[in-house]
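Continuing from the previous page...

OK, I double-checked the sequence for 3D-(3,5/4)-trihydroxycyclohexane-1,2-dione hydrolase against my notes and this is the correct one:
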Amino acid sequence: MSDKTLRLTTAQAIIRYLAAQFIEIDGQEMRLCGGGFGIFGHGNVTCLGEALYDHKDALPLYRGQNEQSMGFAAAGYAKYWLRQRFMFCTASAGPGTANLLTSAALAHANRLPMLMLCGDAFLTRLPDPVLQQLEHFGNPTFGVNDAFKAVSRFWDRITHPAQVIQSLPAAINTMLDPADCGPAFIGLPQDVQGWVYDYPESFFEKRVHRIRRQAPDARELADAIALLKTAKRPMIIAGGGVQYSGAVAELTAFAEAHQIPVVETIAGRANMVDTHPLNIGPIGVTGSDSANAIAEKADVILAVGTRLQDFTTGSWTAFAKDARIIGLNVGRHDAMKHMSLPVVGDAKLALEALDFDYTAPRAWVDEAQAERAKWSDYVAENVKPGNRPNSYAQAIGIANALMDKRDRVVAAAGGLPAEVTANWRTLDIGTVDVEFGFSCMGYEIAGAWGARIAQAEREPDRDTVVFCGDGSYLMLNSDLYSSVLTRKKLIVLVLDNGGFAVINKLQNNTGNESFNNLIADTPTVPEPFAVDFEAHAASMGCNAETVANPAELAEAFKRAQAADKTSVIVMKVDAYEGWTTEGHTWWEVGTPHVTDNPKVKAAHEDWESTRPRQRKGV
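Thanks. Re-ran it with the corrected sequence; updated structure tokens here:
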């Protein structure tokens, strides 16, 4: 190892190190960090900005409009690259950094890599208190950046330039770890960013990373095989971890070899194409009658790469109480949930190692496929234009019919995750991003912008299509402008139902009157009026048009496909009659145990009537 050193500032060392990190993907080397999203301020422009300028070709910096949306874009980028590449986000000290908290939580919940390089207060404290500094009278070391400890997998504050030598590799190793993957936060005090140190030249040598594959324990495999051999009604739950492991082919081969029906989680949508005979549909609260019908009868359940959140398990009512679960997961925490028999290890390696002589009973497979056929018929009718007032499902059906199989679909919070999950017919593997790990309104457009940046690196001729409700649009829309500025075309369907209609539906379903969700039912709004989404999108440089019905939507969608920049298509949908009514398991929500309202009381009793089916576990 060379004894040569380079005298650099802390900021210069960070950026030089990131530029030297590569990863091998499918035999090809590419930069591990695809670049970054940045909004400059006094906490990061003078030092980190200076360092980034010198690496603007190797690490392109996308100028964000909002720090929260920058984080969402970084998450969308990481999802597209299946956690094998990441983007950094840099924000100034104070409110700029604080705006990243929500997106850090989204990345943490979804186990996505994202590096945050954020301004911090002066280490010397000589100018304290400075602009935008929060003072804690009993702890001068405590500030806004400490809030990120709860939503980061790795957290550090650089108090000396030499700490970069240890901190950066640790952050990258965390972001690339299959089990511990998540966001990494590095606080950069404004003075320390500019301090110098003689760094070893070897620190900046090119390094090629590879994602670790953890082999499962032989004894856990043997226990899983023994249990699977006893199954009379086996089922596989395929989660998002199947794609992150690159185990789609192995999952399909395993299911085919043993003729085991497969159901998908929300994150696991697009593990199988719609037409595969063992694809029985999405499971859970936003699932299908077909998947939920076999889930409640299955006796052995192989849960692969899923964290088994409540929308998958129906708050743990979707399965028979005596069903046995095998948790195949690279993360010990997820593999052992609800007293599962754990197989801790990489999904690809574990599925290959689960080699045994067994075929599920033909009658069970026939029953599952019959249920799926009925569900497919329901979806075909549900998405049909003209079957009822304008609906999410109709818009989904139109786009589904017109898209290329490699186009990417993005949706997030509100009613659209349920509608896309239930009604989307997967055209190709890994083409669906329904953000429901943190169910974050505002992810739709920003996350799609990040996904489109990634998609342009590998599939530049394909489209990224966004389903967005009016509520999410109003919450965070500025990356429409970003997409136009950076020439990263999106097709955005804004489906306007007059407010937060899905929560209004939950409100009504629990016996409550409509209140403060739909704009028309908000008592502090004297005169409701409609937003001109078309004019708003056009003002940010998008092609924009408003359509009256699904037939017009189809023609507008074709125009958007032919366009060379972001297109926004607006259609009003019904807030009450347009919902997918089938396919839902029970979902535990808090309802009033005491009330003077007879409708609320009746709804509470009805809701609680399903609780006896809930599995108890840890």
